[in-house]
From TrEMBL:
Xref: Gene3D superfamilies: Glutaredoxin (3.40.30.10)
Protein name, UniProt field: AhpC/TSA family protein
SUPFAM superfamilies hit by this protein: Thioredoxin-like (SSF52833)
Organism whose genome encodes this protein: Photobacterium alginatilyticum
Entry superkingdom: Bacteria
Amino acid sequence: MTANKFKAGDQFPIIELPTLDGNNISLGIPQTGFDWKMVVVYRGKHCPLCTRYLNELEKLKEDFFKLGIDIVAVSADSETQVTAHMADLTVSYPIAYGLSIEQMQQLGLYISHPRSARETDHPFSEPGLYVINDKGQVQVLDISNGPFVRPELGVLLSGLSFIRNPENNYPIRGTYE
């Protein structure tokens, strides 16, 4: 597999996927009332760490909203898998599904094959998190090659609060070439 290195400051690509409410959502575009967007890529229904992370995000959702940051989660799971996963999730933010291998590669994500049919029936991405600013640029990103490494949501929230404060004039970091 060849993965693109997704860079801080890049424009987030246009990726439109379905959600369980029957609509499509453009991953990097904030919904009305928000000017930033956080895209949380998770491994899928088979991952208990993902379930815990998504449920933890729900508890902090209103705090992200107060900062003007909209939220969407996405995986390569099918509609059937996401529907079944909802029994274990307590989330009210949109969950998109059907992320293709090409889209995973476009985002620079690590992709894994299932260890067995019991895990899942398709290649899936390892965790990724993107915070897209009001110019459509990736302000903050975190890409992992395993389920055990993800940003701690409370620390992320605190950092984004600092970044969003206009008095701090905080630039996109990690752009040296």
